[in-house]
C-alpha cells in the first residue's frame, strides 16, 4: 500500500455501515495482566474482551490506574499479557509489531532534540529502510497532513507543545501502519489547542482510513472523536461499558452542543461514576 | 564587565598572597646570603636564626623584605620571576632549542594526545560493551574502578620497566600511562550517556522494530554526546598528568616532566614553577579547545538552544 492512495482515499461511507465488509483488526479475549511488583502483584487488566474493527476510532476512558495505557501497550506488544488471548491483524501482537502494523504516539512528543522536525519524521523511515526519495516524499506528505508544512527544518525546541505533538503524530503516520495507537496525546495541552487538534485528528482519520486506539481522560474528547467508547474502571482494570456512537462521521466542533452528543457524554459519565462506586 | 572585575580581583588577591608568602618562605636564605655578604642581620648567628620563626625574622630584618622577591634560587619564587622565566623560555628561545619550554611542552603534548586518543577509544569501546552486555557490566566495571585506586606514581615506573624489557620506549610508555588515566572518566561518562535515553525513547524504537545497532547509532550515541564531552575534558587533563608522570621515572631529557625533574636536581625553583605553569596553561588550552569542539558539535546536532 503506498501513501498516495492511503492519504487520498476518502473513506467509503458504505464500508463502515455494510456489515459484510466489517473486518476485525484487534481482538481481545479474556485478557488478563498482573504485574509482579515489590509491593506484591498488581492486577492491571482483568478479563478484557473487545473487538475493534477496521476504520474504528476507539477511545479508552477511565480514571487513572484503570489500565488504559497497559491495554494499549499490550496491543503494541510492549507488555505481555499474563492470560487470555490478543490478536492484531490476525497475528500475535509481537508479530504485528515486527510487521510494523501500528504507529504509537506517546503522551510526551519525545522528539529527538538533535534532529530537525523533518529528520525526526524520517527516523522510522530510516529504520525501516525506505529510500531517500521516498523519505522526502513521505515527510512532505505527513507534514502537510498535520498542517506543519514549512516547519520541517525547525528543531523541536523552536515549536510549541501542540506543534511538537503534531510532529510526533506525523512521525507515527509516516510509514504504512494502518493502526494508530495514541496514549493521551493531547493530555498536556490546553483546551483551545486541544479542540483544534481534535478537529484535525478527525479529518486526518477520515483521509487515511486508519484504525485508531485513543486513550483519554476527557469525556468531551472521547465522545467527539470516537465511533466506539470503552469505559474502564480500576482495581482491577476492566471494561465497564462499551458505547457505540450514534454521531455522524462528519463532526463540526459545535456538534458538542447537540442533544445526541450530550446524551452519549451523559452515558459515559454515568459509566465512569458507577465504575468508581464499585470500590 | 562586573564579572571581569570579580575575576581580576580574585587574581590580584592570589598574586598579593603569593608575594606575601614569598617573604617568610625566603627570609632565611636571604639573611644567610646577606650575612655572607657582610651585612648586619639580627640575630647575627645562623645557628640562632635556624630556630626562630620566619615571621619573627622578617620583623627583625625588614630591610631584607625586598630581597626575598629577587633571589636566584628562592624556596618560593615570586610571580614576576616565574613570569620572566616563562617569557624567556618561550618567546625569546627558538622552538627547537633544548631550553625552550615550547619544545618541552610539545614533547609532552604529543604523548598526551596519543594517550588521550588511546584512552578515549578504549573508554568508548568498554562503555559500549558494558551498556550492551550484562556480563561485561559486571566483569569490567569493578576492574576499571580498582585500576584507578592504584596510585599512578607507584604504577608508572612498573609500566615503563615492563615496556622497556620488551623493547618499547620513547613516546609509547608515556602514552600508555596517559591512556591509563584518561580511559576511566570516558568509560564512566559514556556508560551514563549511552544509558541516558528513557524508557519511552526505547519503547518508541521498539515500536519501529529497530535493531540494537540502529538503537545505538540513532538514539544512544547522540544522547551520550554531552556526557562524552564532559568526560573528555576530565580525560585530557588526566592525560597530561599521565604524560608528565611518565617522564619522571625515566629521567627523560625532554618534556615538561623532565624540566620539573632537572629543576629539582639543581634547585632551580624558578624553572620548576615555570614548568608547572606551562603544564597548567597547556591543560587549560586543551580543555578550552575541547569546549570549542563541543560547542560546534552540539550546535551541528541542533542541541544548543
Ligand atoms: N510496568 C509496571 N509495573 C508495575 N505496575 C504497573 C506497570 N505499569 C502499570 N502498572 C500498574 O498497572 C495499573 C494500570 O496502569 P496504567 O495502565 O498506566 O493506567 P492508566 O493508563 O489507565 O492510568 C496501575 O495500578 C499501575 O500502577
Ligand atoms: Mg496512562
Question: What is this structure's SSE topology?
Answer:
The complex is a heterodimer of chains A (279) and B (305).
Chain A: H1 3-8, H2 13-17, E1 24-37, E2 40-53, E3 57-61, H3 68-75, E4 83-88, H4 93-98, E5 102-105, H5 117-128, H6 132-145, H7 161-173, E6 179-183, H8 191-208, E7 211-216, H9 219-225, E8 228-233, E9 238-244, H10 259-277
Helix pairs in contact in A: 5-6, 5-7, 6-7, 9-10
Chain B: H1 2-36, H2 46-50, H3 54-60, H4 79-90, H5 101-132, H6 134-147, H7 152-165, H8 171-194, H9 199-207, H10 212-247, H11 256-265, H12 269-300
Helix pairs in contact in B: 1-3, 4-12, 5-6, 5-8, 5-10, 5-11, 7-8, 8-10, 10-12, 11-12
Find the count of extended strands of chain A (DSSP E, 2+ residues).
9
CATH architecture of the largest domain in chain B: Orthogonal Bundle
Bound molecules: adenosine-5'-diphosphate, magnesium ion
Shape of chain B: elongated
Identify the overall geometry of chain A: globular
The CATH topology of the largest domain in chain B is what?
MetI-like fold
The counted number of beta strands of chain B is 0
Give the integer mean of the pLDDT values of chain B.
Answer: 90
The name of the CATH superfamily of the largest domain in chain A reads: P-loop containing nucleotide triphosphate hydrolases
Q: Can you tell me the CATH architecture of the largest domain in chain A?
A: 3-Layer(aba) Sandwich
Major sheet strand order of chain A: 5-6-7-3-8-9
Amino acid at each position: 500500500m503506498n501513501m498516495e492512495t492511503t492519504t487520498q482515499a476518502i473513506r467509503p461511507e458504505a464500508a463502515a455501515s455494510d456489515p459484510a465488509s466489517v473486518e476485525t483488526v484487534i481482538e481481545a479475549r479474556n485478557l488478563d495482566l498482573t504485574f509482579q511488583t515489590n509491593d506484591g502483584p498488581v492486577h492491571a487488566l482483568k478479563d478484557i474482551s473487545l473487538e475493534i474493527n477496521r476504520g474504528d476510532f476507539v477511545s479508552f476512558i477511565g480514571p487513572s490506574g484503570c489500565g488504559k495505557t497497559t491495554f494499549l501497550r499490550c496491543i503494541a506488544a510492549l507488555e505481555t499479557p499474563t492470560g487470555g488471548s490478543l490478536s492484531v491483524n490476525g497475528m500475535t501482537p509481537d508479530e504485528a509489531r515486527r510487521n510494523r502494523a501500528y504507529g504509537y504516539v506517546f503522551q510526551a512528543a519525545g522528539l529527538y532534540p538533535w534532529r530537525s522536525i523533518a529528520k525526526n519524521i524520517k527516523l522510522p523511515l530510516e529504520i525501516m529502510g525506505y529510500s531517500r526519495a521516498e523519505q522526502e516524499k513521505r515527510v512532505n506528505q505527513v507534514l502537510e497532513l498535520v498542517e506543519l508544512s514549512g516547519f520541517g527544518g525547525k528543531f523541536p525546541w523552536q515549536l510549541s507543545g501542540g506543534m511538537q505533538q503534531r510532529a510526533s503524530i506525523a512521525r507515527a503516520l509516516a510509514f504504512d501502519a494502518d493502526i494508530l495507537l495514541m496514549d493521551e496525546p493531547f493530555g498536556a495541552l490546553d483546551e483551545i489547542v486541544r479542540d483544534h487538534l481534535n478537529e484535525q485528528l478527525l479529518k486526518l482519520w477520515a483521509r487515511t482510513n486508519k484504525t485508531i486506539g485513543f486513550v483519554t481522560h476527557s469525556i468531551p474528547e472521547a465522545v467527539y472523536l470516537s465511533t466506539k467508547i470503552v469505559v474502564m474502571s480500576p482495581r482491577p482494570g476492566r471494561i465497564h461499558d462499551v458505547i457505540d456512537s450514534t454521531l455522524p462521521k462528519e463532526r463540526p466542533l459545535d456538534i458538542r452542543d447537540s442533544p445526541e452528543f450530550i446524551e452519549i457524554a451523559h452515558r459515559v459519565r454515568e459509566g465512569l461514576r458507577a465504575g468508581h462506586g464499585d470500590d | 564587565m562586573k564579572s571581569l572585575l570579580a575575576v581580576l580581583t580574585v587574581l590580584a588577591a592570589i598574586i598579593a598572597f603569593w608575594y606575601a608568602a614569598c617573604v617568610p618562605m625566603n627570609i632565611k636564605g636571604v639573611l644567610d646570603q646577606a650575612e655572607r655578604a657582610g651585612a648586619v642581620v639580627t640575630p647575627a648567628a645562623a645557628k640562632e636564626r635556624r630556630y626562630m620563626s620566619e615571621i619573627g625574622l622578617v620583623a627583625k630584618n625588614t630591610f631584607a623584605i625586598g630581597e626575598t622577591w629577587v633571589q636566584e634560587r628562592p624556596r618560593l619564587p615570586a610571580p614576576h620571576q616565574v613570569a620572566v622565566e616563562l617569557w624567556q623560555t618561550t618567546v625569546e628561545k627558538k622552538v627547537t632549542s633544548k631550553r625552550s619550554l615550547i619544545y618541552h611542552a610539545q614533547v609532552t603534548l604529543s604523548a598526551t594526545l596519543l594517550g588521550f586518543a588511546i584512552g578515549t577509544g578504549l573508554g568508548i569501546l568498554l562503555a559500549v560493551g558494558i551498556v550492551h552486555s550484562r556480563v561485561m557490566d559486571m566483569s569490567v566495571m569493578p576492574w576499571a574502578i580498582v585500576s584507578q585506586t592504584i596510585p599512578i606514581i607507584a604504577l608508572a615506573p612498573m609500566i615503563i620497566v615492563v615496556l622497556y624489557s620488551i623493547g618499547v620506549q620513547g613516546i609509547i610508555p608515556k602514552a600508555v600511562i596517559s591512556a591509563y588515566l584518561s580511559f576511566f572518566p570516558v568509560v564512566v561518562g559514556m556508560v551514563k550517556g549511552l544509558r541516558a535515553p528513557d524508557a519511552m525513547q526505547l519503547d518508541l524504537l521498539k515500536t519501529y522494530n529497530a535493531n540494537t545497532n540502529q538503537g545505538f547509532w540513532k538514539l544512544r550515541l547522540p544522547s551520550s554526546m554531552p556526557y562524552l564531552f564532559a568526560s573528555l575534558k576530565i580525560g585530557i587533563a588526566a592525560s597530561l598528568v599521565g604524560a608528565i608522570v611518565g617522564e619522571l621515572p625515566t629521567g627523560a631529557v625532554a618534556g615538561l616532566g623532565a624540566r620539573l625533574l632537572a629543576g629539582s636536581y639543581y634547585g632551580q625553583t624558578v624553572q620548576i614553577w615555570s614548568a608547572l605553569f606551562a603544564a597548567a596553561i597547556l591543560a587549560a588550552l586543551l580543555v578550552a579547545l575541547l569546549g570549542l569542539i563541543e560547542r560546534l558539535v552540539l550546535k551541528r546536532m541542533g542541541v544548543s538552544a
